[in-house]
Amino acid sequence: MLNFKAKAAFAGLTAATVALTLLTAPLQAQEPRTVVGERYVPTIWVDPDGCEHWVMDDGAEGFMSPHVTPDGKPVCRRGNICGIMPTDQFFATNQHAINSAGKKRLQEFFKSANARTFVIAGHTDSRASDEYNVRLSERRANAVARVGRSVGARISDVRAYGERDPSVPNTSAANMAKNRRVEIYCLR
Amino acid sequence: MKYFKAAVLFVASLSVSACGDISDKTVDQNFGDGSSGDLSQMTAGIWVDPEGCEHWLIDDGLEGYADLRRTPDGKPVCNSELPRNTATGPYKNGSTFLDVL
């Protein structure tokens, strides 16, 4: 209890100092700005998926926040995408039916993945319209989900990105082939 | 007013002498709560929120940590088949601290 009172008093003091600094900032825009703050250097905690989180212990409190790239994706240590299906090996151009060899491979994958549940995300290259590509990637992701469900896998989400989340720039035929993919995330 | 100021100062000096300078935030600061190691070594369980999305949950003795579980595309892991408002897994591995509250 005593501690908390002192902390509140300190917080009040700090807040007042920060407010003052901010108020005077516009008047001295050309001057080097003084930032009043305390040094908080985090360490990294890696979650069971292999993704990083910033973590700090300040005494009685602990703080944690995800380590992300500027586009909001988690920063992970191992390539934690469990399965990437190059769609050229499973689908004909513009089609969403999976050939029988592909079905067999997929069934084996779902059975041996040892996951509690799966998330499926479909992607295309940048040819054709954005709307068409979103729909194509959705049909393909759903086709993969159906194969998974047929062997008893639990699919918790199916996502369709179309051409909006390329893994490499669509600058060559080889890169475009890399972007035509269905990603399978295994949740254990 | 004077008394209040004096009290605040006294309490402030107490708290400073008790905790000292906590400049290293990367290790557990509380000894005797069952965990006092590097924060990177903590083990997590899974907590499912009321909407069905999964979070990593860690009870590190006196401190608790929680953070959203995400798939590689940055989206949350939802539609969990685990029961909602429930924590599962080894999230209390770092704690011998008796949580009575």
Question: Please, could you describe this protein's structure?
Answer:
The complex is a heterodimer of chains A (188) and B (101). Chain A has 188 residues and is α+β, with helices and mostly antiparallel strands. Chain A has 3 domains: 37 residues, no CATH class; 39 residues, no CATH class; 105 residues, 60s Ribosomal Protein L30, Chain: A, CATH 3.30.1330. In chain A, 34% of the residues lie in helices and 22% in strands. Chain A is built from 4 helices and 7 strands; from the N terminus they run αββββαβαβαβ. In chain A, strands 4-7-5-6 form a 4-stranded mixed β-sheet. A 3-stranded antiparallel β-sheet of chain A has the order 1-2-3, with no helix packed on it. In chain A, β5, α3 and β6 form a beta-alpha-beta unit. In chain A, α2 packs across α3. The radius of gyration of chain A is 24 Å and the shape is flat. The N terminus of chain A is likely disordered. With 101 residues, chain B is an alpha+beta fold. Chain B has one domain. Chain B has 1 helix and 4 strands, in the order αββββ. In chain B, strands 3-2-1-4 form a 4-stranded antiparallel β-sheet, with no helix packed on it. In chain B, β1 and β2 form a beta hairpin. Chain B is globular, with a radius of gyration of 19 Å. Chain B starts with a helix and ends in a 13-residue tail after the last strand. About 12% of the residues of chain B have low confidence.
